[in-house]
Amino acid sequence: MTCQQLTRLVGDYVEGRMSTLEQLRFQFHLGLCEPCRVYLRQLEQTRQSLGHLPEEQPPAQVRDELLHRFRAWKATPR
Amino acid sequence: MVKGPPHNDLDVARRILDGDESAFSALVARHHRAMIGVARVFIKDFASAEEVVQDTWIAFLDALPRFEGRASLRTFLFRILSNRAKTRAIRDSKQVPFSSVDDTGDFVEAARFDATGHWIRQPRPWEWDTPEALTSNRQLVAWFEEALKLLPERQRAVVLLHDVEELDSPAICEMLELTEGNQRVLLHRARAAIRTFVDDKTRGRP
Ligand SMILES: [Zn+2]
Fold it and tell me: Are B126 and B138 in contact, with CB atoms under 8 Å apart?
């Protein structure tokens, strides 16, 4: 397995969708290849970081409009 | 960002139904990025996508009394959004045929490997180690946001729903009309693209 091939198989690997043989070959490469271990780690860091991204406020105009509509909704008897 | 358990969702729903503006605003802020991302899968035009997101909030408020907490509030919200976005796309008959560009090709460009398939420029560990370190680094946050913006629509929506909103795969497939396999490919492509973008930036590559 080459580094390039490994990058194509990462998804199957992290989801445990590999045959035992494939998994062994993947892990064998990882064991010998520091750069690919770093690559794998960075993908995991990417996933985690996305879960920690600060919120993105909608533009002020949109926020105002939404609050306006929220108040109108509040005022409507349900 | 703490993603609350279902009882929290019921609590949030009750507060909003009681007219709590800050609870509503907090929910809007929490989901805005992903909502725009999902709307744009179906509606290319940014202003129209924004409109659908706004309308979704009103539909959400109207539907809220029926929320029983069986699914998460996020799932409830994004179901309404994807339904409205699809309806709108059909109404405008501006449905965009999906290019296959976003789910074919290499996870990492071939040009980054030598003839023997090894890294030309080997990945080196990033300086920051925890996701918490990211939130305190404005530059990093900006790069992540830029990377998200550069993704093809479907990749962006899948990664936002999966990694940011933490919805489960079956719900994502249903909302975005994807097969499970397709969804997985889009997710891993998106993560790989974001990782490469951020890595290039941290190493000073344009
Ligand atoms: Zn390698």
Answer: no
